[in-house]
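Problem 12. The chain below contains 147 residues. Write out its predicted structure in token notation.
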Amino acid sequence: MATVELSFTPLPAHVRTARLVATAVARRSGVDESLLDEVRLAVGEACSRAVEGHQLYCPAEPVRIALTDQAGRFEVEVTDTCASGDGSLVGIGARSGGAGPDAVDGAGLPAGLGIAVIEGLADDVQITTTSAGTSIRMSWPSVRPAR
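Solution.
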């Protein structure tokens, strides 16, 4: 089981780097070429949501990503360690289920749209919220390349 960990300053420009790293690690882990665009887009969406929350509430805190290859799965976990001023979690944890039906995100889009996009792109999605923050874990099937 190999793990690559990445943390970056919450700036939109670094989301591209996170997508590139995730795609490279996915390819190396044996994720089928036909799924690499889904990996890139899902990681980009999760990182963008985390960056948005961090810029609003904790700009000094880095966004964290863990990329793991284990048991025939490529897994990405994006962690948002911010809480808003009222104690509610933001960024990747902002879901339509926690907001009213007319809630919107910073871009004026429905609050749950990004999560719905991620759920449509990843094979499996798990969102965990604790007092330490929110993480979104996405995974895709992988096959280790022959050596």
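Discussion. Confidence is low (pLDDT under 50) at residues 85-89, 95-104. Students who got a different answer should revisit the alignment rule from Section 12.3.
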